[in-house]
Amino acid sequence: MGSSSSRQQGPSRSQSLVLYDNKKASEAVEHVRSDFVDPRSLVDKLRPGDMIQVKGNMVHQWFYSHFAIFIGNGEIVHVDSSDSMLKKCDVVRIHMVDALKGKLVRKNNHLDNADGFRDKIQSPGQIVKTARGWVGKFWDYNFYTNNCEHFVTLCRYGRPISLQSSGIGDLMSGKITTKEFVDHSVYSIKEKASTLCAWIKRKARGLWDGIELRIERYPALEG
């Protein structure tokens, strides 16, 4: 893990954007999900067992999210699927801010209120134990049937499910029933809409912040 000083590094933010991110992160404490913010603002607002959704800046990441499990002390456990062409990916434990520097993140326990899952939520201790138990092992990665979202839902709910793959792979692999597939298709549409709206809102706020920073650095010449 990196030093404490390295964890303070990351994209520059104006004071107004820091306040915005801190406010949005604070709202996550008592809710199932939050808006997207800089990881430096969210890390202290998470509880062990929370699922973290990550959005990058590459085009393909507009439609696909990475997921990780928060295990406390600023650390996460996740499937390192940075090279998704690999069939076996490492499950790693790392400091959240070090791992997600430059990305946007949000707390997203998206199945906590879903039928068939709200009563399956594991205790924080059990979620952390499951996640830690995978560290150093290989995850048989497949986007449709065994991706990073499957990993975090396995830890949190005891069942590996992925909404971003629309449940097709889960149905074909026997992870869900036909009825659950119909329900999950609805959840999937809502989740994708929620993700897109939250991501666009924070990106727009970030673009405006970039303009403010440029104005601060290059003020108009007087006289």
UniProtKB/TrEMBL annotation:
Keywords: Hydrolase, Lipid metabolism, Transferase
Family: Belongs to the H-rev107 family.
InterPro entries registered for this protein in UniProt: H-rev107_PLA/AT, LRAT_dom
GO biological processes: N-acylphosphatidylethanolamine metabolic process
Domain of life: Eukaryota
Example GO molecular function: N-acyltransferase activity
Pfam family, one: LRAT
Species the sequence originates in: Paramuricea clavata
Ranges annotated as spanning the membrane: none
Gene Ontology CC, one term: cytoplasm
Protein name: Uncharacterized protein
